[in-house]
Structure formats: structure tokens, C-alpha cells
Write a structure and sequence with these properties.
Layout (H helix, E strand, L loop, with lengths): L1 H9 L4 H28 L11 E8 L4 E8 L2 E8 L5 E7 L15 H10 L13
């Protein structure tokens, strides 16, 4: 019994130590996961095979279950409709020169851009939302 009391007196205790151990273990797991994922991505693991003849130009979700796909195959562009539980259907076939030019600012800001703006304290306001000074 005396030996047991002496052993417990030498070990640090309390919630602070347990919290520190938990945080260190969490950090170690996160670093290990990052290293493994980085290693795997450099070797091409976990990526889909990229085709050289088929390219998805655009995907437009119509609702939760239906989607339109604009797919380029060779010199043809196919408009494909896909729905829940149904096989995809070719709606129409277009030539590349029939497509309208893509809008340059149609793409929204990436997550990294939004995060940088938020970290720097910048706000992106359009002309309509600016208050007159």
C-alpha cells in the first residue's frame, strides 16, 4: 500500500496534464495524417484517372437530383442530362464553335482567397452595397 502511494505521488495529475496530453496526441495525429496524405498525393494515389479524350467542360445542378453536363469528346460537345435513378441521356450534340464564350468572372473566389481576405480584414463590396460618403 505504501509503495502504491509513493508511485502516485511522483506522477503529475489533474485535468491540465490530461488536456495537454490530449492536445499533443491530436497534434501528432494531424501531422501524421498530413504527411501520409501529402506522400500519397505525390505518388498519384487517391486521384481519379484522367482521360485524355473526354473532358467535362461544365456541370450545372438543376436540383438535388438532376444535373446537366457539358462534355467534350473529340471535336464534339455533348449536352448530357443525368437524373436520380435514370441513366444519363444525350440531350443534344454541339460543335465547339457553337458554344458561347465563357464569362471570365463567372468563377467565384476560391476558399483560399476568401480566407486571405478575411485574415487581412478586407471586405469585398460591390458598387451597390457601398455607402455614400
Amino acid at each position: 500500500m505504501i509503495l502504491l502511494l509513493q508511485a502516485s505521488a511522483e506522477l503529475p495529475g489533474g485535468y491540465g496534464v490530461a488536456l495537454l496530453q490530449s492536445l499533443l496526441a491530436l497534434a501528432a495525429v494531424c501531422v501524421l495524417a498530413w504527411v501520409v496524405l501529402r506522400w500519397a498525393s505525390q505518388r498519384g494515389l487517391g486521384t481519379f484517372a484522367r482521360g485524355t479524350r473526354v473532358k467535362v467542360i461544365e456541370r450545372v445542378p438543376l436540383d438535388a437530383r438532376r444535373t446537366l453536363w457539358l462534355v467534350k469528346v473529340g471535336g464534339k460537345v455533348l449536352l448530357i442530362g443525368a437524373g436520380d435513378g435514370a441513366s444519363p441521356n444525350t440531350l443534344t450534340e454541339l460543335r465547339e464553335d457553337e458554344l458561347p464564350a465563357a464569362e471570365s468572372n463567372a468563377k467565384g473566389a476560391t476558399f483560399v482567397e476568401v480566407l486571405r481576405r478575411a485574415a487581412s480584414g478586407e471586405t469585398k463590396r460591390t458598387e451597390e452595397t457601398k455607402r455614400p460618403e
